[in-house]
From TrEMBL:
InterPro entries in the cross-refs: AB_hydrolase_fold, Esterase_phb, Plant_Biomass_Hydrol_Est
Originating species: Cucurbitaria berberidis CBS 394.84
Stated family: Belongs to the carbohydrate esterase 1 (CE1) family.
Signal peptide: 1-20
Name of the protein this chain belongs to: Carboxylic ester hydrolase
Known function: Esterase involved in the hydrolysis of xylan, a major structural heterogeneous polysaccharide found in plant biomass representing the second most abundant polysaccharide in the biosphere, after cellulose.
UniProt xrefs under SUPFAM superfamilies: alpha/beta-Hydrolases
Length: 292
């Protein structure tokens, strides 16, 4: 097989781009599921910097998600730290289906991810009140799980084209190949009280505030179907004690409808007309939501 020179240079350029923006951290504390930590610390680091944990899709990597999003470029402007971890199992999907993965400090992916945050806070004197999480598809699913299992770690979240916390509970796997398809197909429909009970059971006894949430979905998503947006909003409106207040059309762009709960400070959704899997990342809107 002949491999072109341009292909070789292309791979080299890709690797160089990845290496330029991310540093591998091998010893960040307990890492029960052998995740990979990749961090970007900007040249001009803010005093008491914020942290954004950004979670890739199934079959993705942290390095690739860093290149496909603008968070690192924005971090150079704003001085916050980004973490782009990688999952290495089950088609590189995040563990959002097992009992340990849906519990606190029980040896799941979520525990390793939170230890990356703790390491970063300590090493870079980051602000523990300005820790945020975002993700696409499987990364959005894990965002929901982190909000339920470690609500005291994260101030706010945004996510794209995912499912409610616990939607995949008990599924044999978390990937499109290994999972119970009913969740992604939008067939796991529960009452608000049921979703709230499921989320609260992931960190029993916790009575503090939960992270503010902004979640996005496309009407033409055939992989993680649109009813999952409604189930997420049902769950988190119950967790926050807010009710639907209004829709705002063509916001933040044509074809997108903003779904506002309460005064819009704790929970909002976006439904994108004709958009498939996944909704493109809207980094500027995310940073606005995070207060950055």
């Amino acid at each position: 097989m002949h491999i072109s020179t341009s292909f070789v240079f292309g791979v080299a350029a890709f690797s160089a781009a990845v290496n330029a923006v991310l540093t591998r951290v091998n010893d960040f504390g307990s890492n029960p599921t052998n995740l990979q930590m990749n961090i970007n610390v900007p040249a001009k680091l803010a005093d008491k910097p914020a942290i954004i944990l950004a979670l890739h899709l199934c079959a993705g990597t942290g390095e690739l998600y860093a290149l496909l999003t603008k968070y690192n470029a924005l971090s150079e402007e704003k001085g916050f730290i980004t973490i782009f971890p990688s999952s290495k199992k089950d088609l590189n999907c995040w563990e959002v289906n097992t009992a340990k993965g849906l519990s606190r400090d029980a040896g799941g992916d979520n525990q390793g991810l939170v230890n990356m945050i703790k390491y970063t806070i300590q090493k870079y004197n980051a602000d523990p009140t300005k820790v945020f999480v975002t993700g696409s598809s499987s990364g959005c699913m894990m965002t929901n799980v982190l909000m339920a299992t470690y609500p005291d770690v994260f101030a706010a979240s945004t996510c794209y084209s995912g499912v409610a916390a616990g939607c995949l509970a008990g599924s044999p796997g978390a990937s499109p190949i290994s999972s119970d398809p009913r969740c992604a197909n939008g067939q796991i429909i529960k009452t608000q009280a049921e979703w709230v009970a499921q989320a609260k059971a992931m960190y029993p006894g916790y009575n503090g505030p939960y992270p503010r949430m902004l979640t996005w979905h496309g009407t033409a998503d055939l992989l993680v179907k649109p009813p999952n947006l409604g189930e997420q909003l049902k769950q988190w409106s119950g967790m926050h004690g807010v009710e639907f207040s209004k829709n705002v059309t063509n916001t933040p762009q044509s074809g997108y409808t903003q779904i506002v709960y309460g005064d819009g400070s704790k929970l909002m959704g976006y439904i994108a007309e004709g958009v498939g899997h996944t909704v493109p990342v809207h980094e500027a809107e995310d940073l606005k939501w995070f207060g950055l």
